[in-house]
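re: ur question from the group chat, yeah i did fold both. here u go
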Amino acid sequence: MTKVLRSVVTGVGGYLPENVVTNAELAKVVETSDEWIRERTGIRERRKAADDEAASDLAVAAARRALEAAGRTALDVDLIVVATTTPDLTFPATATIVQRKLGCPVGVAFDVQAVCSGFVYALSVADGFVARGRAKCALVIGAETMTRLMDWTDRGTCVLFGDGAGAVVLEPQEGEGEVTDRGLLGFALRADGTKQDLLYVDGGPSTTGTRGFLRMQGNQVFRHAVVNISEAIHAAAEDAGVPVESVDWFIPHQANQRILEGVAKRVGIAEEKVISTVAQHANTSAASIPLALDQGVRDGRVKPGELLLLEAMGGGLTWGACVLRL
């Protein structure tokens, strides 16, 4: 049988800023309550980056933990892909700043912008390097300072988001071309630019010349999320050659507990297979999947050899899913 090269996750790491902001604290600055937030979203608290903490700082902290878990150092890294909606600067790419701060050698480094779907998109992009022998040690990072895009007078959005970063190390390993192989096994990526007005930021360098604030039509996003993500999940599972119900763990984008439950129910995944961190982290956009994966690995639930299903939907609208064996 012909051998195939797979992109295998060999290390996972996460980082959350120290500052914890509870629902009760938010209720002091915007008209809301702990009960209102929990009932609608499942969120209890979120993290807020310090004023001198940039997205690259969060990314570096997560990357160091992932490299340690993989038994690698920054000197091994030849590819860095950072998924972020909140870059340090308009340019250069946050990935190149991470490369410098980590002390990595000259290699490939760039950002991916697909908002909350960014990490799934970034995994697919990195797979194009690693599974083709063009990278030997890749860092794929989701890093966000979403609280800096908040309009703190809008209780419908400012309570939903938090800051953080998660990272994985991808390395090439030979497989048999079977679903029992370790590594990235299947993807489905989607985008529909006609739905931009459902979730966007109302500013940018080439339009308003300002950073802008996040705007969202929550009910519409919820409706599209459950339907669209479910389709992508089935497509990714078909691409991987596995039935959806065979996955060991469902690690979704942590946007809203009701969306997590709605998607899991629609595609037939048991509740006990869902990794949920939304109560503690809120929505950390591109960082949410690797943060949830890191938590599952570190608390011993997610084990090597298990089949994982990742999914997300974000502004654009973009969405997608990935099946991998750890």
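okk and heres the other one u asked abt
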Amino acid sequence: MGENRNLDRYKGIIPAFYACYNEEGKISPAGVRALTRYFVEKGVKGVYVNGSSGECIYLSVEERKTVLENVMEAAEGRLTVIAHVACNNTKDSMELARHAQELGVDAIAAIPPIYFHLPEHAIAQYWNDISSAAPETDFVIYNIPQLAGVALTMKLFEEMRKNPKVIGVKNSSMPVQDIQMFCQAAGKDYIVFNGPDEQFISGRVIGAEGGIGGTYGAMPELFLKMDEYVKAGELGKACEIQYAVNEIIYKMCSAHGNMYAVIKDVLKRNEGLELGGVREPLPSLLNTDSVVVEEAAKMIQTAKENFLK
């Protein structure tokens, strides 16, 4: 059983925060603050900082600190903040965990170490060591086996629940059934976040009480409306939006450049945000990608006109 704790602050739409760069490709504090204010204005529950969408594996420890510091400064307590702190070594991960706690985040999160396929006891040790560096802060397990190369098994999840700071799982594995299994095993003392944006309503219906996603930021209003419909039991209406959202996601993935580069250009066109490009080796947009960006931006505008009446 988990501790008595307030999980309500995690229930809802939590966009994954994008890396914000200036013209020289360095972290842009101004961009980070602008994006944070944008999320506050849109009315989302919180933000998930320095995760996959934040290009975390391509940022230094100091850059990730800079991002989080500016998010916290601009949020001014108006957003739930989950800081992803995993690096590919325990020492740096613990340093980021300590830093996150000092800044007053709501929770920290971590993927398992990547590249070497570690035994489960070593993964548990890694996560618990990170958690020990932020002993007053909630801990979220990030399960994304298709990228990390290792999956959160039920046995490993059971072991991690011995840590009282563990509050749940950000589940980005593709089988919706995984969400059901984690919910069933853990009960109401824990929260499971839906990860794959393309199956947002599926994850919510089967037990996820929150969602963390990399495309939410391009169209937060649509995910907020879907969540509203799911809560109201109006699944037909939620499904219509999900289909439209998925078409937008497919479009954004069709460019030569990385999807996050497309999203940042879409946000520039639709919201006036200057967030830069993506960091190498992620592929940047080509001139020919402008058609994809234009179409995706228009699709989002049209979907908002159709569904946000």
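fwiw on the second one: The first helix runs from residue 29 to 42. The CA atoms of residues 46 and 80 lie 4 Å apart. idk if thats what u expected
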